[in-house]
Amino acid sequence: MNELEKCMAGESYDCHDPVFLDFKAHARKLLKKYHALAYEQSEEKRSILQQLFGKIGSNVSVGQPFLCDYGRNIYIGNHVSVNMNCTFVDCNTITIGDHVLIASNVQLYTATHPVELSERLIPDRDARSDQYFCSTYALPIKIGSGCWLGGGVIVLPGVTIGNGSVIGAGSVVAKDIPPNCLAVGNPCRVIREINKS
Question: pLDDT per residue over 160-178, tens digit each?
């Protein structure tokens, strides 16, 4: 299994493997062009996003500035608004459904490290060398159709947010959220059901 296959399988992988460095370099070039465009240059912006993302539906807006790791692992449906200053760490897949609102400063993180120090550090790495010293793995994130993520929401690796759910501003979503729920807090918890009618 190569490093890319390990990454997409949720296993520990070398995030400094040349394949990932190439993905990052490609994304940085496209993001630099994207950030140089004026607000009203919709066609030019869409063209860049089509080159950057794995998939992009119709009527999608992504506010500037926007940051991502690779771009290629981001899959966005139709009628999606991503407001300014969002960060998508797409080392694994980030799938966003249709009719989704993502407010400013939302952060979606697929990459993570083991909690235990003995598992996090890679043995036999010289602290003075330029070799990467810690273990990394990545888990997919899924945002269902009809969701709204409020300002400053953080979604952690492996989380699925069900269709129609709303995540309150400033929440840290560490576990799956069922469909049609209002959920808030750190850690994010379901407050009540919504969309009953």
Answer: 999 999 999 999 999 999 9
